[in-house]
Amino acid sequence: MVEPENTRLGKMLLDEITPVVMVLRTPLVEESCRKNGLSFIEMLSPFCNFNNIDVPVRTASDHPYRLRKFKLRLFYASEIRQMNSEVAKDRLKQVVTHAGDRDISELCSDPPAIETIVATSELEIVPSWFQTFNKQLVDAVSFSEHESFDHPVACLVAVSSKDQEHIDKLVDLFDTNQLPSLLNDGAMDPKILKYFLLVHDNQDDILEKSTGILTEMRSTFGAHDCRMLCINSSVDGSEEHHENPWASYRNNALHKKQFGCFINVDDIEELKTTMQDLSSKHIIPHMELKIRVLNQQVSATRKGFRNQIKNLWWRKGKEDVPDNPNGTMYTFSSIESQIRVLGDYAFMLQDYELALSNYKLISTDYKLDKAWKRYAGVQEMMGLAYFMLDQSRKDAEYCMENAFSTYLKIGSGGVRNAVRCGLWWAEMLKARDQYKDAADVFFRISVEEPLHSAVMVEQASYCYLLSTPIMLRKYGFHLVLSGDLYKKCDQIKHAIRTYRGALVVFKGTAWGHIRDHVHFHIGKWSAFLGMYDEAIKHMLEVLACGHQSRAFQELFLKDFLRIIQETGKTFEVLRLQLPVINFALTKVVFEDHRTYASSAAASVRESLWRSLEEDMVPSLSVIKSNWLEIQSKVLPKKYKESNVCVAGEAIRVDVGFRNPLQIPISISNVSLVCEHSTESDETVSNASSSLINYQNDTELRTVSVSGDFSLDTPFFTLSEVGTSIQGGTSILVQLTVTPKTEGTLKVVGVRWKLSGSVVGIHNFNADVTRKKVARGNRKLKQSIKNKLEFLVIQSIPRLEGVIKNLPRTVYAGDLRRLTLELKNPSTVSVKNLKMRVSHPRFINIADQEAMDLEFPNCLKKHANSSESYNHVDCAKAPNSVFVFPETTSISADTPLVWPLWFRAAAGGSVSLCITIYYEMEDKTAVITYRTLRMYYNLEVLPSLEMSFKISPCPSRLQEFLVRMDVINKTSSESFRIHQLSCVGDQWELTLLHTVDSVFPLEYLIAGQALSCFFKLKKCQTRVTTEDNLSSLVTSARADVRLGDSDSRLFDTSISPLILFHHHERLLQEKLQQEHQSTIDFILMSESQNESESGQPRSSEILSHHTCHCRIASTSPIRWLMDGPRTLRHDFSTAFCEINLRITVYNSSEDHLSVRINTVDSTPTVIPVSSAASVSGNEEGWHDLSHLSDIKLTSDLMRSKVGKALSFESVSSFVWSGSSSTRFKIEPLSSAEVPLQVCVFSPGTFDLSNYSLHWNVLASGEGGDDEAGSRVTSSGTCQGHSYHITVLQKD
């Protein structure tokens, strides 16, 4: 720690605990001093502070010491009294008010950063007026009767040389009736040192006269105690001082004259000499003498063991005396008062050890006498003495704590003394770097009076800031607390100042509620003072307070709008936080060679459009690279690095606004802020040039009430919208700018007006443009593209397209004809049109003649096949580009109308993308081609769900049983089943039952299920793959009518049915991994329901396609054993030989090698009596016609046969011939193999003990050379059950 006298407390004590000089003067003395704008004391005071007096002093010790610093305090006799509490409050209020008026300029400047504040020293960070305020608090308890350091040590009596009867004047000035009460009441010794001064005014009197008066005074009062002071030696009163000693009194000046204007250098030197002579030759020696005298008296009466015992004996029994706040009345002649005077005089002469010893001596006496105020005062001085001696810190703090507590114990009479004690105590702790403890002391001395408490709490906050470790939260909290107290005292400027200081702490933290509180009150108080710019700046910070309650949000917004209304102006605010710009929703849509039929089309991913257009745009079919490289080939070089847009075509910017509040807000006049420049003129024309002039995000700009923003300029036109945003929601506002002339257009930002009061402006930066742009999510290079800058070119044709009658909601399978209509508003024609659809399952482009056909009759079969709609080659069906006829051209007068086929192929939400390519007739245009992108979204509801199960006929190779299950999945719609067709001319389909038995009702109502059976027969044995792909035709035998017999059947082999079926076939092939032996079905139905008005509406056609239904098992071969089922034979002559044959069919498209293996084993012999059981309930197809000839034998015969069989040791039958037969079968063909079995006894035999083993031969290995064939797959099939009955021939 530094030397105690160099600390702030040490300097304070050297200023406050110093000898007091009572000043008595005549009115003429005061008049002479007033010529300089000063009072008599003000003129003398600058020369009462001696920083290097160097006077030897000897008190009670025999060893003198030198006094380096010394000060006198001068007071008029009328001022030597305790200050009234109301006067003290007024003075404190004046200090605070004056400091607030002086610091008002700082309220509009930005506060320093917290890092800067932390690194700042205490002298720079703590307001300087705190010292003045604290001095006023100390002065408020001056001249107490129990503290002799405020009692006058000497009396300065001054008369003017212009006064009459000078001796009588001097005597009359010291009249006891005019002296302070301290002298008259016995609190102090009235016999004080007197020093007589004759003031000579060189402006009004001659020096010789004054010299005579001085001689008379010295003869009366003594030559040593009288002196003459000459002032006002300047002739013209224009004296200027380089270092004016009275500069500190400037604020108290009564006129505009310079202080000391009549006092020259000689007068100043005489003033210095006079006051130094008074100090060193009179006051200091007088105090030395009194200290020595008092010390001798105290030593004789109180010091020593005997005196101490006597004192304790004399004070014995005083413990029973009731408490008295002021204690026993002590006169100046009492030993207690003498000891106190001795200690105070020693303290003022800086002999702190002597002062401390006497304070300790008297402390016990006051405590025993229960003179608590005097006891507390002594304890206070003991703590200060300990501090100045730099001795025990613990003892010093104990004494200050004891004094503070005792003052508060007294009650209201000791509060002001407690405040002074607390101030000195806090400064003591601060000098020892105990800032945290000092803050606690400041907080303890904050009394009930709000202004006093506000200053103390603020001083405590700075202690928290200067403590180690730093306590930022407490610093900010106490600043806010002091600001609230300042506001209660109407000290709004100080409230703003402290709140601004706290704001630095809470800025950038998660303490949102307290930060909003600070901003809101600064804004509110600034508006009260008329600082509207500062008020609005802070109120803007609390607008987007989503974390606050609804009540606070309404309060903040209401007060903000009220402040704006009070100004009578319209403000532009950059980055207005209400509403918040939602960057996640912001998107830019513009058209160059890509145009959009709707806003929904612009929202589709760019990669999807490019995949559709890659075979249409000439450059894309050759160059497989990014769009920028392609554009450089198509467009001129100067357009490479620019976003190109066309004059007269709008650029759309979708701006997302989010309301962070719980209350709704309204925004109006929402528009873009743009700039336009031409190549020939570098000047910029923009809708509002204010945006570029902002220096920072918080700057405000005042505009007129009506605003200075234009939506329609010679260069572009802006759109303007208004809307309201509900609490906690986000909306997307679509804004457009339409350029009118060629040049460069830049979208700078967006502006809006909040609640019709304040204009918000948001400046787009490079990050915004990297969000979802209509060109896709690709990352653009750092160029002017990222700045929303567009190159505007001359107007070129732009097609407008729409698909008429496209429903938004349909049932699955719905088939209808639509109309595509293309218009060209431009006078320049377009040609070379191409078109492509993203989902050919849903939309197929028809031929132009389809417009003239009647739908749906054009899809039905006619008696004359030439009248039906043309058949279509399915080889053209894949998703290819449709090229319009070369003669097709679209101009302004002739729109193009083209038919389209639509079918709802699958349920769910379906997005259809259609792109149309066209070229300009004008080859000089910058862009020679464009594409029109169309997007539609529709909901496909489930309708009919069908499934098929195909089982092969065991008795016939080319026949199958088909079971169809149909379920109506709708909730209210009914359907009429019209027909079922199988695709291909090699099939014949017939219904097993009559139509009436299958469909008892005309319609299949909602939720109803239906099953029906068909017989499928193959008419053609071989169809190649090429034939199947090139033409999916159906014959008349492949269609089965299921509905009205009067209506014609649909021709499923013509467009669009065959085209849609081909796409379904391609899709289901990928999903099911097509088997070689499959068949496709098409179910035609009609929906018939009443419209909303109750009138029947026209029927709607639905087609349902099921492809790749398997007609074979996993094995590629099917076989059938043929032979007799019943025969008679005479076993008595020989065994029975039966000839059989197996027909094997290859259902695959590969060459097969088949081997038939027969196995001889004891078969299951069924007695002839049970032969009839063969015709029992067995599942599947069984031909039982051969069993009709069975005749039962007699029981005798049966018994004989059974008896014979039981003794038979051989098998009942054996296979004759080769046990293994191998042969090859061509693809989709059959082969017959003869077999023979020998039966040895009558009975019914199951000839299933054989197997067929097949191998698939590699391609090209189908010759006879078996060794050269390469097997790729194989399998084994067990023989079918085949029963034969042999009877004994009669």
UniProtKB/TrEMBL annotation:
Provide the taxonomic classification.
Answer: Eukaryota, Viridiplantae, Streptophyta, Embryophyta, Tracheophyta
One Pfam family named in its UniProt record: Ig_TPPC8_C
- All copies of domain TPPC8 C-terminal Ig-like, residue ranges: 1122-1251
Question: Where do the TPPC8 first Ig-like domain residues begin and end?
Answer: 606-822
Q: What is this protein called?
A: Trafficking protein particle complex subunit 8
